[in-house]
Amino acid sequence: MEYRPLGRSGLKVSTLCLGTMTFGDPDATSFMHGAGCDWETSHAILDAALAAGVNFIDTADVYGQDGLAERVVGAWFARSGRRDEVVLATKFRFRMGKGPNGNGASRGRMVRCVEDSLRRLQTDRIDLYQIHAQDLDVPEDETLRAFDDLQRQGKILHFGCSNYAAYRLVESLYTSDRLRLDKYVTLQAQYSLAVRDVERELVPLCRRHGLGLLPWSPLEAGFLTGKFRKDQPPPPGSRLERWKERLAQSDTPRNWRTLAELDAVAAETGASLAAVALRWLVQKPAVTSVIYGARTLAQQAECLQAAGLVLTAGQMERLDTASAFELGYPYEFLRRVQKGW
Fold first, then answer.
1. What is the rounded distance in angstroms from the CA atom of residue 19 to the CA atom of residue 32?
2. CATH code, domain carrying 260
3. What is the value of pTM for the model shown?
4. Which terminus of the chain is more exposed, N or C, with fewer CB under 10 A?
5. How many domains does the chain have?
6. Structural domain boundaries, residue 93
7. Any bridge partners for residue 89, and if so which?
8. Residue 41 in this model has a pLDDT that exceeds 80
9. E strand residue ranges, the chain
10. 184 given a catalytic annotation
11. What is the pLDDT of residues 66-92, one digit of tens each?
């Protein structure tokens, strides 16, 4: 397993991060709509991840009813005694309570959310506390001052953001400089061979300002694992069998072309398609750690193959070409100008 600095911080994290969205409830009432796993399986996945060298775990208060995923992780900490071996990340922002202050990123709500997460996780600190999405109703300086206060109190060590537009993230970094506050160290964003939009502005932003990029949904809800094939029904029990609208969005010539190239590279390397898709991200600029999810030990084993895999420059280029997307204006125009057009 390879380890990298968590953005500008001194913390070192594994290049694979275990996401916990699937943890705690295999029933249709769960956050994953029936594509989850029970507590025992969740704890077995955590044990196996650490045994493989994964030291980074990502969760969120909204994963499952009443903070279910956080409670599963907290119970595992209590049982295993391995809290200090883990860099723990969680998130807040989405609705967890009733009324007008039951969601959002105000100072008052953040203070309540961090206390609730600490209790559910059975820990005295959160290593990386993240805002789950930007909140246009709250001034960025209010959110940043609250992060700074929690950091000074020792309840969080570092803070990051998720699902931010580039303009808002630049505004945030400027505000931190102006007010002499600490800054976001990471950006968690959707990024995969199927969804590469972050390459327009967010990847260059992270490289320029030293933020660690944490891709989520790196396998496009399982589409990039090879279990889905053109003009064939999705496998029973798969997420995309339930999420028919998401499957329809993935049904594009570009994605089938990408899947075919994934098949070819996987055959060359002897690794799973999931491992190749994850490794492609690990080797992309600005990426610190790739957040994968699993609801069985077998799924996790396929993902963990990415740790011992290295893709050649030629293989990376082939995957880049197969998954190429339209940059649009002004990005394509500027790319041509930069090349001397």
1. 12
2. 3.20.20.100
3. 0.93
4. C
5. 1
6. 3-338
7. 58, 128
8. yes
9. 3-5, 12-14, 16-19, 56-58, 87-92, 126-131, 156-162, 186-190, 212-216, 290-292
10. no
11. 999 999 999 999 999 999 999 999 999
